[in-house]
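[Discussion] Sanity-checking designs against the backbone

I'm trying to build intuition for which residues belong where. Below is a structure token string of 110 positions. I'd appreciate it if someone posts a full sequence so I can compare it with mine line by line.
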């Protein structure tokens, strides 16, 4: 069953665009990882400074294997380098874990 792992990244006000650019130029190393089902980078629109990287995986084992793999290191090789203002782009991050519970999508009416 699909699991959801969210990396919640807090960035200073000035760091958001830099974070988005880094993801736009990301390594792509995760894309062929066994059990990877996709990710989305979500930008806050309500004044918060926390961005969410929502990733989906086949199971806990697949996620754990990626985190300890060379692909994870490669995908994060530049993540710690200073941003345009000399400070780190991310000031903190934490991982949140979820599993799908109840879902809905619109039914098509024709
Ligand atoms: C120390 C904590 C982390 C920080 C500060 C961080 C930050 C970043 C940054 C800035 C990038 C853009 C690429 C780059 O600049 O090299 C990136 C890539 C990525 N991050 Fe993280 N990250 C962290 C941990 C995680 C975790 C635990 C997950 C999963 C829940 C995750 C998911 C991703 C994904 C899917 C990519 C794209 C990688 C690829 O294209 O291969 N990150 N991260």
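Best answer:
Here's mine. Compare freely.
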């Amino acid at each position: 069953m699909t699991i959801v792992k969210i990396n919640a990244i807090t960035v200073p006000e000035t760091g958001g665009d830099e974070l988005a650019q880094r993801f736009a130029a990301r390594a792509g190393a995760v894309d062929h990882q066994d059990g990877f089902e996709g990710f989305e980078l979500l930008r806050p629109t309500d004044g918060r400074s926390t961005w969410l990287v929502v990733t989906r995986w086949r199971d806990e084992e697949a996620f754990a294997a990626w985190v300890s793999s060379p692909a994870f290191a490669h995908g994060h090789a530049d993540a710690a380098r200073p941003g345009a203002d000399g400070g780190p782009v991310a000031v903190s991050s934490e991982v949140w874990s979820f599993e799908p519970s109840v879902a809905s999508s619109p039914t098509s009416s024709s």
